[in-house]
Specification:
- By secondary structure, the chain is an alpha+beta fold.
- It has 4 domains: 130 residues, Sandwich (Immunoglobulin-like); 124 residues, no CATH class; 73 residues, no CATH class; 110 residues, mini-chromosome maintenance (MCM) complex, domain 2, CATH 2.60.320.
- It is 23% helix and 38% strand.
- It has a 6-stranded mixed β-sheet, with helices on one face.
- β10 and β11 form a beta hairpin.
- α1 packs antiparallel against α2.
- The longest helix is centred in the middle third of the chain and has 55 residues.
- It is elongated.
């Protein structure tokens, strides 16, 4: 990670300010560009305990950035923190109109003097759009999108199986009508039964069908009521977000279909899911909705954490070739599409791929193909941080991952340049990681081998 040092006197007296380094980046940079900031007040280290650090700036194109999440306090009593620039900080070329750090405690605020940021053009990469970046807004948008996706998924899981049942009800209705027509013809021609016997049987059929219609109409009304959860002035504010207006259209479309079908219902209500106690041989062989038991012999089961070595799969099927499977209690799911499992199992819960102690020269053997995951969570024991964690994207085979850590060193009561550590990892193949380098440089000395180690590797879908 690239790092620069900045020094500010919080009093904003120009004669007390150190000459600041020019921060230079390129359009598209971000997440690996950092500054380490030291604050003083009248020549004395400025205590920032209890204060929040915010970066504020106006980018070269006039868009604004207000970032509350990029700063990490290194030494509060001595006024030191590190700030990592997000990708939106380097999204337009030119010089910032203004850039500074603000310190907040409740409604109290103070700020540093401005410093210069220059962003170079990127003539290679396209579609790097510059927008306003405000932490609270980004977090709100992410939460609204998550809630919306969860709502749509929940409703589709109810509607799609019900539509399949309705199609079957139509077929049953046609068959019943044909039977009644035959009975009418028989009664009129007096071929098999007399009129009194026919009327008794006909009344029994009609009464059964009437009760079935009432039961299913109740189910339909419950479904319609559950879909009318958003209004024009919804207290959650969903109608004020342009991106969610498509939900209204989807809701109206389903309501129209329900109204059209409401007068044609001729069978019983939706039945519950069947629990299958036999061990499932292959996930891809599931063709009906139900609950299925699996164990270590079941094929096409994903790698799971130790407490999920066996259990149940819930299957919701639209038809024998299309549906959704979820491992109950493990938050892992996959779609069956056109008769085949689609892409890979997905989960928001990290999956433990390896645990132990790996030092320089070690080869880590993972429990699963590393390319089944989008990111890795790596637990590390550095010299300066025994409980460090790093999130990294999964590279291709034969590519390398670099993990860095820096910390100040105490010498004769004063903090000095300190220690800079680096771990190098080679992705040998789909299931093996080689720890080929663990080094540390102290102050201005050359780097030497260190005792840093990796203690766990998790995968995130």
């Amino acid at each position: 990670m690239a790092n620069q040092d900045l020094f500010f006197d919080i009093t904003k007296q120009f004669e007390d300010q150190a000459n600041q380094q020019l921060v230079v980046g390129r359009v598209g940079d971000g997440a690996l560009k950092a500054v380490t900031v030291t604050l003083v007040s009248n020549g004395t280290r400025y205590n920032i305990e209890g204060l929040s650090v915010i970066f504020e700036g106006i980018k070269p194109d006039g868009t604004r950035i207000i970032d509350k999440s990029g700063a990490t306090i290194l030494d509060a009593k001595n006024g030191e923190f590190r700030y990592v620039f997000p990708r939106q900080a380097f999204s337009a070329d030119g010089e910032y109109e203004q850039a500074f750090f603000k310190l907040m405690r409740d409604e109290q605020a103070d700020s540093t003097l401005e410093f210069k940021i220059k962003i170079k053009k990127n003539k290679v990469e396209l579609n790097i759009n510059s927008t306003d970046y405000i932490t609270e807004v980004e977090q709100l948008i992410a939460k609204l999108k998550h809630d919306f996706d969860a709502f749509v998924s929940d409703k589709l899981n109810i509607i799609e199986p019900l539509e399949t049942k309705i199609d079957a009800y139509f077929d049953a209705a046609d068959a019943i009508q044909k039977s009644i027509n035959v009975l009418n013809q028989v009664a009129l021609t007096k071929q098999w039964i007399n009129v009194e016997e026919f009327n008794e049987y006909k009344n029994t059929v009609i009464n059964d069908r009437t009760q079935a219609i009432e039961n299913l109409e109740t189910k339909f009304q419950q479904l319609k009521n559950s879909m009318n959860i958003f209004t024009e002035n919804d207290e959650h504010g969903m109608s004020f977000i342009d991106g969610y207006t498509s939900l209204k259209s989807m809701q109206l479309s389903h309501q129209k279909r329900l109204v059209a079908l409401e007068n044609l219902i001729n069978s019983t209500s939706r039945s519950g899911l069947q629990v299958n106690s036999n061990v499932l041989d292959d996930v891809n062989n599931i063709r009906e909705s139900g609950i299925y038991w699996f164990d270590s012999s079941t094929r096409n089961i994903p790698v799971r954490n130790g407490n999920n070595s066996n259990g149940y799969i819930e299957a919701i099927m639209k038809d024998p070739d299309n549906g959704m499977f979820t491992i109950l209690g493990a938050d892992i799911s996959i779609e069956k599409w056109q008769g085949q499992l689609h892409q890979r199992w997905r989960s928001s819960q990290p999956i433990l791929l390896w645990e132990g102690t790996a030092k320089k020269g070690s080869v880590i053997e993972l429990r699963d193909n590393v390319h089944n995951y989008l990111k890795l969570i790596i637990n590390i024991s550095f010299y300066t941080d025994k409980n460090a964690t790093r999130f990294v994207s999964v590279p291709a085979n034969n590519e390398r991952i670099y993990l860095n850590q820096s910390g100040l060193r105490l010498s004769q009561g004063n903090l000095k340049n300190g220690n800079l550590e680096e771990i190098g990892i080679l992705v040998q193949d789909d299931t093996h990681l080689s720890l080929y380098k663990t080094q540390m440089a102290t102050d201005n000395d050359n780097a030497v081998d260190s005792e840093a180690s990796i203690t766990a590797v998790y995968g995130i879908y």
